[in-house]
Amino acid sequence: MLLAEPPRTPFDLNFQVLGFPVRIHPFFWLVGLLLGYGGETDGIGLLVWFVALFASILIHELGHALMIRHFGRDAHIVLYAMGGLAIEGRPSSGSGSPWSFEAYTDFRPRSRSPQEQILISAAGPGIQLLLAGLVVAAVYASGGSVHVVRESILPLPVPQLGGALADNANLHLLVWHLLYINIFWALINLLPVLPLDGGQIAMQFLVQQDPWAGMIRALWLSVITGGVMAVVSLVLLQQPYMMLLFASLAVSSYLTIQQNTGNRPW
To answer: Going by C-beta distance under 8 Å and a sequence separation of 6 or more, which residues neighbour residue 77?
Structure first.
């Protein structure tokens, strides 16, 4: 969901997963705390939320990174605020500026084909939905079940663990968070709103048809979808954070249209 990698800080957490360098910016934990604190009032519940959030966002970015690797390029991952980035190239061991190509080693810029970009963008939400499917399968394997209930206009999966796991409240909460994040957030990320993955996919489809008009159409689609989702988030879902997110993305797309068209007729 980010446009550029955030600068490094002394408080970053660095490690590797499947050969990909991973950096976690401290704002990831801060925003996660703000999102989780509204729903969890005890320490264990908040910890369970962080485990589900961290695992889900990391898996999402791994989906992008694995697809980048599939096309013969290296990648690294940064988790920041409400999302993250899978970036081509490897981070340097020094403290070079993360805003320039010189910050990465073995990075050779090469244009992606539209088909490559579509597959890379789709891989993040796709691997999240796969994870959700595996969680559902595990619930049924335990002797439990998953029911779909409607909260306002939003259908949500509600798991019920079976057997010896049925009375484990923390495990039940973890499964619920994993299903919610990896189904609901993945589908939200597929909406044609820039810079979400769905917006990137829509941009590639439309630009293939018409390089100039396609970009403007994709931006207008982002404005309209983002505006509608902002209203739906506030009025129907009663989610002010989501409303602010989509409103800001819609405004950003509109300003990009203004910058790219000027007085040019569209």
So the answer is: 17, 20, 21, 22, 23, 58, 61, 62, 65, 84, 85, 86, 87
pLDDT greater at residue 191 or residue 97: 191
Strands across the sheet containing 83-88: 13-17, 20-24, 75-80, 83-88
Per the DSSP assignment, residues forming a β-bridge with 145 are 160
SS3 of residue 145 by DSSP: strand
pLDDT tens digits, 54-66? 999 999 999 999 9
Given a cut of 80, is residue 16 above it in pLDDT? yes
Beta strands (DSSP E) in the chain are 13-17, 20-24, 75-80, 83-88, 90-91, 104-105, 145-151, 154-160
Give the residue among 65, 57, 59 at the shortest CA–CA distance from 83. Answer: 57
Whole-number Å distance between alpha carbons of 227 and 205: 21
Average pLDDT over residues 219-229: 95
Single pTM value for the model? 0.85
Q: Smallest Cα–Cα separation from 100: which of 2, 5, 1, 3?
A: 5
Strands 75-80 and 20-24: parallel
Q: 182, 156 in Cβ contact below 8 A?
A: no
pLDDT, mean over the chain: 84
In single-letter form, the type of residue at position 227 comes to G
Phi-psi region of 110 (alpha: psi -120 to 50; beta: other; left: phi over 0): beta
Predicted confidence (pLDDT) at residue 191 exceeds the cutoff of 90 = yes
Tell me the residue type at 258. Q
Indicate the range of 65-74, 147-156, 194-203, 207-216 predicted with least confidence: 147-156
